[in-house]
Amino acid sequence: MKKIFLSAIIASLLLIGTTVSQQGSKKQLNEDELIAKAKKIHAEVITLDTHDDINTANFTDEKNYSQKLDTQVNIPKMKEGGLDVAWFIVYTGQGDLDEAGYKKAYANAIDKFDSIERLVTKYAPDRIGLARTSDDVRRLHKQGKLVAMIGVENAYPMGTDLGNVRKFWERGARYMSLAHNGHSQFSDSNTGEKDGVWLNNGLSEMGMKAVAEMNKWGVMVDISHPSKEAIRQMIELSKAPVIASHSSARALCDHSRNLDDEQLGWIKKNGGVVQAVALGAYVNAEKTALREKLGREILQEFAEKEGIKLPSSREEIMKLPEKEREAFIEKFAAVQRKARPVIDERLKEKAPDVNVKDFVDHIDYLVKKIGIDHVGISSDFDGGGGIEGWRDASETFNVTLELVRRGYTKEEIKKIWSGNLLRVLDEVQKVAKKLQAAS
Predict the structure, then answer these.
(1) DSSP codes joined into one string, 353-412
(2) CA 40 to CA 42: how far, in whole Å?
(3) How far is CA 67 from its chain centroid?
């Protein structure tokens, strides 16, 4: 008995000694060494952001992403910040559920597909390529090129023709959400939580069929905008893992766009991945609200000089027609950039902005809740995203630096930045091959 007791004490002392030694080695890293370590990791892993909105006005011969525009994402800023893969979004705002609405929405979607195609085939084919598989991503990255991928935000443009799933897949779409802000013909939106009004009680019959078609063609099912019941049904129906392309943890920020613990459990069991999003209101609603309230007067001064009326809320912006919304966001973003230094200076004590540390808190929570294999990263740049420390693609390194500060290893960071999402894409495409062979 004494020998067993003595052995236990020795083992405990050895464990304590190891822990102290590990902590000591961490403390020995000064700031320069920490940054150097993070830079090495950042250069060696593939960094991938699953949600970057686009304005087709920035995909013309005169003005395009080969230039360092005021957009949060473009080729020069991706290069500067070490962002390797950007998922450009074919977004369409929710409109009327009739033939006229579907026709207009379809034209908008095709316009965006065409814009992305021009970027990779005409404007900068030597600098960026379109990936349709994880092998494409690795091949293009090895060639020293940046990578474009395509996600569809809102299936509304498909109308009532499920053949459009294949058409969008052929254009390069590799994920799609069945709803956005407002209920679609396929799915209820998370926005129904606000007024308790639902259209489909989750998915419509056509929405259920759409999930099957997405599985068949290798399009990842994106659950970021649909209602909780729709998400439950999608996960239940899908024969492949799903993704949340830009959502964070509701336990840390109570917003209907975020995922609660029950939903996170569903996603883990399904084998999917949650791409934490760097949009202030979804990261820390209290900090965002206070800063917006106190900074509004300052922002108003700058807006008036530019002849812009400030919106009362993000929802007000999202209700604008597509072209008006894109034009307003671009003008409003320019005003925000001009006003930010003044706002930062005046409010740095009273109302600090949501920052990279707040964002990585969500990554920490998700990792602890559902595991390192089910967490990824998104920004929602040029669609409302951006936080202090990761305002645009040029500051992408700061996310890696914060992960290193918190003790994440290179292998873990590799999974979070791209490994998990690409693993899901691989699994979705394997399921698609089986389903196509069976049919």
Answers:
(1) PPBHHHHHHHHHHHHHHH-GGGEEEE--BTTT-BBBTBSSGGGTHHHHHHHHHTT--HHH
(2) 5
(3) 23
End-to-end CA distance of the chain: 67
The CATH 3.20.20.140 domain(s) of the chain lie at 32-283+354-438
CA angle (190, 281, 375) in 5-degree steps: 75
Burial category of 412 from C-beta neighbours within 10 Å (exposed 0-12, middle 13-18, buried 19 and up): middle
Q: Which amino acid is at 389?
A: G
Catalogue the E-assigned strands of 181-232: 220-222
The CATH superfamily holding the domain 32-283+354-438 is Metal-dependent hydrolases (3.20.20.140)
Q: pLDDT in tens for each of the 439 residues of the chain?
A: 333 333 433 333 333 333 333 333 445 789 999 999 999 999 999 999 999 999 999 999 999 999 999 999 999 999 999 999 999 999 999 999 999 999 999 999 999 999 999 999 999 999 999 999 999 999 999 999 999 999 999 999 999 999 999 999 999 999 999 999 999 999 999 999 999 999 999 999 999 999 999 999 999 999 999 999 999 999 999 999 999 999 999 999 999 999 999 999 999 999 999 999 999 999 999 999 999 999 888 898 888 888 888 887 777 887 788 778 888 888 888 888 888 899 989 998 899 999 999 999 999 999 999 999 999 999 999 999 999 999 999 999 999 999 999 999 999 999 999 999 999 999 999 999 999 999 8
Q: Which residues contact 61 (CB under 8 A, 6 or more apart)?
A: none
Beta strands 243-244 and 48-53, pairing class: unpaired
Cβ contacts of 410 within 8 Å, gap of 6 or more: 41, 44, 45
Instruction: Name the pTM for this structure.
Output: 0.90
Supply φ then ψ for residue 188, to 5 degrees. -75, 150
Owner of token pair 């910040």: 81
Q: What is the DSSP letter of 238?
A: -
Which residue in the block uniquely carries the two structure tokens 């019959």? 205
Residues 252, 246: Cα–Cα separation, whole Å: 15
Task: Give the rounded distance of the alpha carbon of 353 from its chain centre.
Answer: 20
Q: Where are the beta strands (DSSP E) in 186-264?
A: 220-222, 243-244
